[in-house]
């Protein structure tokens, strides 16, 4: 069976995504509006006139050349377990090359290995264990290994293996809390004692979590800028979040939400979530160093988990984590915080490159290595 690949309308693209339980928020049509430095395009795989797969492609131009890096973040949305994966990818590569792409980067949304919270807790306490990959997984999907073999045989190269979970592009390792088939009481029973204690303390202290809108983005951003300074990372500008809000909520009013944790008139923490189908992601979080004793972050996450559950989500995704388990890692506290909810870590098969022009692709690699 062969597919016909062509450009599709935003409406057809969105209709296909709406028919799925889960697809990455970076593969919905509106995500192109979040990235103004990239040109976006929707592609579709068709058979007998029926749409069988989609892709949001972002094109990044090379200065002074009419050539592009084509990026499909956490996509395309196709049958990744098809033994003949080439019938999906070859037409895509041919089309992208015809559009001036010199290199293609994609991120198959396929999870290969999982580790539950109890395994991670023991590993963090064991000085002999340094990385998630050193641990036997709680579960493993052999189809993921088969896919990576097929990609390598077809000329694809995995990138970012050295990054420890927080490199450029989309995260290889994430932390997920399953909600499918569980009551809220069962979900909370899976939290560790510290989490349950902190939720009760926040409630007793009078912390209130409220929904915000576009007008509250500056309040979120003030906390976000403070968090960036405290944790020593480069913050995105306020305009990025305003653009995200405008683009995503115009497509679906529930695609993006903003939550704020307040106490006696002070906004102490804030976070955004993104929703596609039955998958909810914790996207960006921010907090002040003031009044940490009232536990606003636990209250914030618990409200977002409750809302995800009420909306029928099958998973609440805490997004990226480090794959290192050493005490010296600056991200280990974040992993401890997320693993306190139960759930578990998951490892995707990673992002993959295909050089359509080897010379330009090599030049891009060299440029990125020197940044």
TrEMBL record:
GO terms for biological process: cell wall organization; peptidoglycan biosynthetic process; regulation of cell shape. GO terms for molecular function: aminoacyltransferase activity. Signal peptide: none annotated. Keywords: Acyltransferase, Cell shape, Cell wall biogenesis/degradation, Peptidoglycan synthesis, Transferase. Coiled coil: none annotated. It comes from the Bacteria. Pfam families: FemAB. PANTHER family: LIPID II:GLYCINE GLYCYLTRANSFERASE. Belongs to the FemABX family. This is Peptidoglycan bridge formation glycyltransferase FemA/FemB family protein. It comes from Streptantibioticus silvisoli.
């Amino acid at each position: 069976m062969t597919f016909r690949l062509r450009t599709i309308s935003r409406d057809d693209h969105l209709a296909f995504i709406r028919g799925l339980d889960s697809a990455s928020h970076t593969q919905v049509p509106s995500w192109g509006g979040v990235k103004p430095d990239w040109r976006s395009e929707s592609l579709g795989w068709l058979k007998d006139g029926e749409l069988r797969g989609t892709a949001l492609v972002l094109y990044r131009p090379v200065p002074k050349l009419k050539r592009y890096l084509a990026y499909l973040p956490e996509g395309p949305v196709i049958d990744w377990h098809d033994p003949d994966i080439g019938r999906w990818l070859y037409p895509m590569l041919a089309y992208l090359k015809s559009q001036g792409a010199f290199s293609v980067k994609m991120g198959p949304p396929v999870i290969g290995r999982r580790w539950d919270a109890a395994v991670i807790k023991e590993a963090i306490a064991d000085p002999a264990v340094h990385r998630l990959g050193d641990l036997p997984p709680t579960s493993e999907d052999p189809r993921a290994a088969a896919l990576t073999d097929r990609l390598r045989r077809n000329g694809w190269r995995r990138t970012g293996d050295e990054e420890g979970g927080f490199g450029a592009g989309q995260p290889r390792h994430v932390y997920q809390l399953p909600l499918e088939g569980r009551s809220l009481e069962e979900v909370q029973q899976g939290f560790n004692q510290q989490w349950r204690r902190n939720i009760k303390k926040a409630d007793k202290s009078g912390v209130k979590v409220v929904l915000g809108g576009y007008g509250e983005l500056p309040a979120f951003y003030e906390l976000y800028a403070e968090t960036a300074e405290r944790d020593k990372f480069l913050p995105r500008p306020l305009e990025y979040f305003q653009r995200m809000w405008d683009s995503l909520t115009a497509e679906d009013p529930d695609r993006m939400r903003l939550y704020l944790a307040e106490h006696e008139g002070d906004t102490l923490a804030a976070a955004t979530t993104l929703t596609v189908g039955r998958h909810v992601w914790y996207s960006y979080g921010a907090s002040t160093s003031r009044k940490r004793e009232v536990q606003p972050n636990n209250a914030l996450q618990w409200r977002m988990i409750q809302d995800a559950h009420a909306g029928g989500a099958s998973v609440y995704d805490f997004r990226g984590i480090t794959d290192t388990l050493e005490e010296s890692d600056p991200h280990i506290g974040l992993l401890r915080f997320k693993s306190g909810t139960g759930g578990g870590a998951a490892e995707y098969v990673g992002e993959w490159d295909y050089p359509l022009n080897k010379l330009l692709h090599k030049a891009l690699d060299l440029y990125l290595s020197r940044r």
